[in-house]
Amino acid sequence: MKKLLFVIVAVLLTLPFTTQAQRGSNAIGLRFGGGVGHDAEISFQTPFSGNRAELDLGFGGRGDFDYWKLTGIYQWVMPIESGFYWYLGLGPALGSWSYNEHDLDDSGVYIAAALNAGIEYNFEEVPLQISIDTRPELSLSDTPSDPFGFGLALGLRYRF
Fold first, then answer.
1. What is the full DSSP assignment across 95-139?
2. CATH code given to domain 2-159
3. What integer pLDDT is reported at residue 38 of this predicted model?
4. Interval 140-148 mean pLDDT
């Protein structure tokens, strides 16, 4: 998993230097961190109704615990100065978890309400975006842990 993550990051970081593609409003990349057990998420952003929609897919596990989660966030993006923005958002999350250890075997599907707040910088020289954000979530259904989750994440995305 770590090797695959390294390869994905390496490819994303070299894309700006290997292409002269026109920069657009879409972005794809990785969001590192984000909560308990979440190492990284594949992240996609696109313009939507004058603001932006973000779709993130995370998966992984630790030992006997496995999960996946799909989160959709509608974000209001506001400029600070050239290339620098802050944003607020909210949306749903859908996930599945599985826990298998000795005599304990449990799994479930959950839905959650997610908030999102962060800052980002879009480089002018290369089509790269870097962001840091927080995403508190409140589980609205079955979950193996506390129904309130909180995480901080670093995002690296290629803009196209």
1. EEEEEEETTEEEEEEEEEEEEEEEEEEE-SSSSEEEEEEE--EEE
2. 2.40.160.20
3. 66
4. 78
